[in-house]
């Protein structure tokens, strides 16, 4: 056998510039012509191939081979061509599987014959999916290889791959995630991490006897969160509908019906801004536990996240994409919103602090609060004075009543509710409640929300008579929590939200 050329891990010389639009168009024309010839003489997109194994499986079984080893084992496998070098009597290609594993294919005159070798040289381009059959060997340089005796095009690529040794820019990664997955290990790792995290969440819930259900995505009345909804129209019902902003009100109906421990992992839609921590379409986890409260839901949330960290990183100490280590272990801090704000602002602020005092403090800090209420001022001031200094995972407890219409009044602090927000890495990751189950008070809260909507608050909740009817049948004391799946991945990987969502919405 002639000398072989393994795929380099990094470029040995400065990378060539990106392919121009004109070059891409020219390459596409050439590949289209090859496609026509392949179809005329055989197959460009066969429906099936005699595949017997995968690249990862061959690497796992034969990765121990040393230079010039032979096995006598014949396999049939397929992969995408990501490197190719053609010489006179021997052609080399690196075939890549979906997980990024690679193996070398060696196509020689001696093994396949002159006609087959020339067809390889004529038809096989970078990016093509190729099937090869042959013996598993190790080349002279110790490269795990298939000594090909038979091959076929599995799928002809009409567009060239990007330069695999130059990282794609963020815009290309987001808009053409398939290229990102082909070319970048981190992209493949992100997809695997998300799947592992979600599987871990379900496993933890199963261990606590929770039942997973599905709730409507199209709703007559949007509810369960303070957010602006997307609207659509049903031709069948000739009515305006809303995309779900949260599953809360339906999950609570399930608790009323006797499903005491219930959760859902779902897609939510909020017609609001997009930035490094927000997306108009996002994945959400919500869970409710009859006879629980917000303290128990905080315990559960910590367990969910720590187990997800173990599933993804193998440790409670996760390493972010920039190399920073972040410790999710131990028991997390729990601080009072009012007490932490008072300490940071240097003035005592309670649920009884008058609106003019809060406004004066906000004005002094240059904080503008729209649709001013006590609660909105307190939350804006807390974000200004306290939020940036939170380093460890922290539950911020006990919120103003007027900003939390679905939450039970605090058992010992008048004017506050039993709610927490969990902050990790400086952003809100999850929220938890002792749920409001009194239908009379819930109706009063909805009416007040409607009044705020009439005053111009387009995020105010709407009165939902069907939900109130369910509550009137009796809902047990309940704890609830919600967590963004995309944000959970941000906490585990250190990436922005557009990297944790495989196919984010872009303009």
From TrEMBL:
Annotated InterPro entries: Aa-tRNA-synt_II (IPR004364), aa-tRNA-synth_II (IPR006195), aa-tRNA-synth_II/BPL/LPL (IPR045864), Lys-tRNA-ligase_II (IPR002313), Lys-tRNA-ligase_II_N (IPR044136), Lys-tRNA-synth_II_C (IPR018149), NA-bd_OB-fold (IPR012340), NA-bd_OB_tRNA (IPR004365)
Keyword Lipoprotein: no
Gene3D superfamilies: Bira Bifunctional Protein, Domain 2, Nucleic acid-binding proteins
Residues given in the record as Mg(2+) 2 binding sites: 428
UniProt keywords, alphabetically: Aminoacyl-tRNA synthetase, ATP-binding, Cytoplasm, Ligase, Magnesium, Metal-binding, Nucleotide-binding, Protein biosynthesis
One GO MF term attached to the UniProt entry: lysine-tRNA ligase activity
Location, primary (coarse class): cytoplasm
Co-factor binding details: Binds 3 Mg(2+) ions per subunit.
The enzyme's E.C. designation: 6.1.1.6
Cofactor (UniProt): Mg(2+)
Location in the cell: Cytoplasm
Aminoacyl-transfer RNA synthetases class-II family profile domain location: 201-504
Signal peptide from the UniProt entry: none
Residues reported to bind Mg(2+) 1: 421, 428
Reaction catalyzed: tRNA(Lys) + L-lysine + ATP = L-lysyl-tRNA(Lys) + AMP + diphosphate
PANTHER family for this protein: LYSINE--TRNA LIGASE, CHLOROPLASTIC_MITOCHONDRIAL, LYSYL-TRNA SYNTHETASE
Entry similarity comment: Belongs to the class-II aminoacyl-tRNA synthetase family.
Subunit description: Homodimer.
Name of the protein in its database record: Lysine--tRNA ligase
């Amino acid at each position: 056998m002639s000398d072989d050329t393994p795929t380099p891990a990094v470029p040995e010389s400065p990378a060539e510039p990106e392919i121009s639009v004109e070059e891409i168009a020219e390459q596409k024309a050439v590949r289209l012509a090859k496609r026509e010839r392949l179809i005329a003489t055989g197959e460009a997109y066969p429906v099936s191939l005699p595949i017997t194994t995968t690249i990862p499986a061959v690497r796992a079984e034969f990765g121990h081979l040393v230079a010039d080893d032979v096995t006598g084992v014949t396999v049939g496998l397929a992969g995408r061509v990501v490197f190719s070098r053609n010489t006179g009597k021997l052609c080399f290609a690196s075939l890549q599987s979906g997980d990024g594993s690679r193996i070398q294919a060696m196509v020689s005159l001696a093994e396949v014959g002159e006609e087959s070798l020339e067809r390889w040289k004529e038809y096989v381009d970078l990016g093509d999916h190729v099937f090869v059959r042959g013996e598993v060997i190790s080349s002279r340089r110790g490269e795990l290889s298939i000594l090909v005796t038979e091959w076929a095009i599995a799928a002809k690529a009409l567009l060239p791959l990007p330069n695999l040794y130059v990282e794609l820019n963020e815009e290309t990664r987001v808009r053409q995630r398939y290229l990102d997955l082909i070319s970048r290990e981190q992209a493949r790792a992100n997809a695997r991490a998300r799947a592992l995290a979600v599987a871990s969440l379900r496993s933890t819930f199963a261990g606590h006897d929770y039942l997973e259900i599905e709730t409507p995505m199209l709703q007559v009345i949007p509810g369960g969160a303070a957010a602006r909804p997307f609207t659509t129209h049903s031709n069948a019902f000739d009515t305006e509908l809303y995309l779900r902003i949260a599953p809360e009100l339906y999950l609570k109906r399930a608790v009323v019906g006797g499903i005491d421990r219930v959760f859902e992992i779902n897609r939510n839609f909020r017609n609001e801004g997009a930035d490094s921590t927000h997306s108009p379409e996002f994945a959400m986890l919500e869970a409710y536990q009859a006879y629980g409260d917000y303290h128990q839901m905080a315990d559960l949330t910590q367990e969910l996240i720590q187990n997800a960290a173990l599933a993804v990183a193998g440790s409670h100490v996760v390493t972010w994409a920039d190399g920073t280590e972040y410790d999710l272990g131990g028991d997390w801090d729990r601080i009072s919103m009012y007490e932490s704000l008072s300490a940071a602002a240097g003035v005592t602020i309670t649920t009884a602090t008058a609106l003019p005092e809060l406004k004066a403090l906000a004005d002094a800090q240059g904080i503008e609060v729209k649709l001013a209420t006590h609660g909105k001022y307190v939350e804006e001031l807390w974000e200004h004075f306290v939020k940036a200094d939170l380093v460890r995972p922290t539950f911020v407890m006990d919120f103003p009543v007027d900003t939390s219409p679905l939450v039970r009044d605090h058992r010992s602090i008048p004017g506050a509710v039993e709610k927490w927000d969990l902050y990790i890495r400086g952003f809100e990751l999850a929220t938890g409640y002792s749920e409001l189950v009194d239908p009379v008070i819930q109706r009063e809260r909805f009416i007040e929300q409607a009044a705020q909507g009439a005053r111009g608050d387009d995020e105010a909740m709407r009165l939902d008579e069907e939900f109130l009817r369910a509550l009137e049948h009796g809902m047990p004391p309940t704890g609830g929590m919600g967590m963004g799946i995309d944000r959970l991945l941000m906490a585990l990987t250190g990436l922005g939200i557009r990297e944790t969502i495989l196919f984010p919405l872009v303009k």
